Amino acid sequence: VPSPPASDAAALLAAGRGGDKAAVARLLSLVERGGDDARAVGRLVHGAGGHAHTVGVTGSPGAGKSTLVARLVGTLRRAGERVGVLAIDPTSPFSGGAILGDRVRMDDHVLDDRVFIRSMASRGHLGGLAVAAPAAVRVLDATGHDRVLLETVGVGQVEIEVAGAADTTVVVVTPGWGDGVQAAKAGIIEIADVFVVNKADRAGFDQARRDLDQVLDLTGPGRDGGWRPPVLATVATTGAGVDELVGAIDDHRAQLTVSGELERRRQARLADELVRLVAAGVDARVLDATRGAAWAAATAGVTDRTVDPWTAADTLIAQLLR
Amino acid sequence: VPSPPASDAAALLAAGRGGDKAAVARLLSLVERGGDDARAVGRLVHGAGGHAHTVGVTGSPGAGKSTLVARLVGTLRRAGERVGVLAIDPTSPFSGGAILGDRVRMDDHVLDDRVFIRSMASRGHLGGLAVAAPAAVRVLDATGHDRVLLETVGVGQVEIEVAGAADTTVVVVTPGWGDGVQAAKAGIIEIADVFVVNKADRAGFDQARRDLDQVLDLTGPGRDGGWRPPVLATVATTGAGVDELVGAIDDHRAQLTVSGELERRRQARLADELVRLVAAGVDARVLDATRGAAWAAATAGVTDRTVDPWTAADTLIAQLLR
To answer: How far apart are CA B3 and CA A53, in angstroms?
Structure first.
């Protein structure tokens, strides 16, 4: 059965719910494209879903996140879950095949009907991934995935924003990765619900665990008052510790649900998304305005020094804002 | 003679031109404060000046920038120039005394009537230093300083923006500082008009110079087509190489003037400033709106999932924009 056309978002959603991976892919392409298509899909999937548990996986490049995510998928699949994976790369202008081509570790799962894998990269449009990623998560949720894994390539600002916007955020570090102070600096202590020291068979594991525990002692409890992020050990290449990691992730979900924090987080994320959408819309209009005749005239007045920049800015702002 | 009151910007400007350092300080305080006071001063000094040569000095913390700037001031003073120094720290919430207190190396110049030294830090308001720094430079220009040195504490985004907005930008590195690739990554190759390897008496100097030359070979000519940034050697603690640095800075100014690039850069900076002022003004209005009743209602609709974020965002944007 061929998938419905891209123009029919509602039919795509129904097909995606029925397990049609091509339909899910088309919905995500619409979301990535931005503009009216993205809005149509966004409106459709808003309110649908709410069932999926979203797990962000972040950490330094080379920490073994991709291998770990592939292992997580394996464990979740054995438990019968339908799993979606979004690999987010804010530094790459490419999406789809580019990152995915490298993801040989995911090969086992690519042919699995109940695993959907997608890479998202920055398309350079305003708001970019920070706007598209939550919408993509919502698509995977609305199409019936039980678990959505959000993997980011590094620990930049956008990646922290994206990964931190999950129900549960897993931060992956390695032995020798640093003294925990680095983690605090990068702003990842605040977003971590679960720490994983991957490559735990390497020298320096005990030190890495001690460092993290020390930082956690200093910084107090995590985002959810009663939860102290556990520090787990994995060797993603062999799969050691991965079942325990899934256990910790599920413990965190249970705690989120019982405490009411899950709903609070989801509401906070929706409120954030509203701010981002408004900011992106306003920025787009300002960018448009910079290409207009009024802006050119104002710039000419400022650069030939007949008008000061403040006066010129006030004029342009008055033309833009109510 | 006491300085004019802060309310009389025109009198402060006249006093500052006459060499009254307290008057210059008051004008800069008005600029830092933002809002209507800053606008009044900005309008007054726009069009005045255009005489000062602005020199940005940036580079990693610990590269010896402050010592080097103090040495530059010494050389410029011996040549009879009136010199202004703005030390920019986007990471600090303090301004004025905070950084200045540490600047013991500047002690020789603090009592010099023809040297004005000021630290500017982020006050956390929108647009912040990126808006205030060019206005502060213009104040120093309009009050008759021949040379304005803009020193930044590190190589973050704001610092690159601020230092890169000088007529001539000096990037300070040290031996062992890295392989040039780091410079390219930090985005400082593009803004450098002159490179200085400070602490040139240390091991690794030749390597650092080679690395920079190699990166320059790869990246082609600098911002101004015909100018290849020279790589100079200094030992700021002894003053070695500082006269040559001033020579290179003056060579660059001469080249800028002859090629017409000086005026092009200044016009481009004014156009950039206009964009920043409009963006800051619009952002301030969006921030205001987030605190209003309409925003609260929209957020409530989104978080209880009766309205999707796109529809809510469109409503809020329509209320903000013309």
So the answer is: 65
Cα dihedral B175→B178→B184→B187 (10° resolution): -80
CA–CA distance from A57 to each of A11, A87, A188 (Å)? 31, 9, 11
Name the A residues in 253-272 with CB < 8 Å from any B CB.
267, 270-271
- Cβ atoms of A172 and A65 within 8 Å: the answer is yes
**Shortest distance, CA A291 to any CA of chain B (angstroms):** 11
Taking the C-alpha atoms of residue A5 and residue A221, their distance in angstroms, rounded to an integer, is 48
Q: Pick the more confident residue, A225 or B85.
A: B85
B310, B315, B319, best to mutate vs chain A, most A CBs in 10 Å: B310
Question: Among partner residues A47, A282, A309, which is closest to B46 by beta-carbon distance?
Answer: A309
pLDDT in tens, B250-259: 999 999 999 9
Picking from B123, B117, B121, B120, the residue whose alpha carbon sits closest to that of residue B103 is B117
For A92-120, the pLDDT digits (tens) are 544 433 344 344 456 677 778 899 998 88
Instruction: DSSP letter for A87, please.
Output: E
* B41 in Cβ contact with B31 (< 8 Å): yes
B278 vs A contacts (CB less than 8 Å): 286, 289, 313, 316-317, 320
Q: How far apart are CA B30 and CA B118, in angstroms?
A: 13
Q: Is A89 on the interface with B (CB under 8 A)?
A: no
Assigned token pair, B25 = 């300080």
d(Cα A59, Cα B311) in Å, to the nearest integer? 34
- From chain A, the residues in CB contact with B275 under 8 A are 290
Q: Does residue B181 contact residue B215 with C-beta atoms inside 8 Å? A: yes
The residue behind tokens 């920070």 is A130
- Touching A: B residues 175-204, CB under 8 Å: none
For chains A and B, CB pairs below 8 A equal 117
Neighbours of B258 (CB within 10 A): 10
pLDDT digits (tens, 9 = 90+) for A20-33: 999 999 999 998 88
Q: Is residue B187's pLDDT more than 80?
A: no
Select, from the ranges A150-159, A224-233, B190-199, the one with the highest average predicted confidence (pLDDT): B190-199
3-state SS assignment for residue A119: strand
Q: Does A274 contact B299 at a Cβ distance shorter than 8 Å?
A: yes
CB A199 within 8 A of CB A60: no
In terms of pLDDT, which residue wins out, B130 or A250? A250
- The whole-model pTM stands at 0.72
Cα B258 to the center of its chain, rounded Å: 24
Number of H helices, E strands in chain A: 14, 7
Give yes or no for A313 touching B (CB within 8 A): yes
Q: Exposed/middle/buried for B315, CB within 10 Å: 0-12, 13-18, 19+? A: middle
Question: CA triplet A16, A17, A21: central angle to 5 degrees?
Answer: 30
Q: What is the pLDDT of residue A196?
A: 94
- Between A62 and B239, the more confident residue is B239
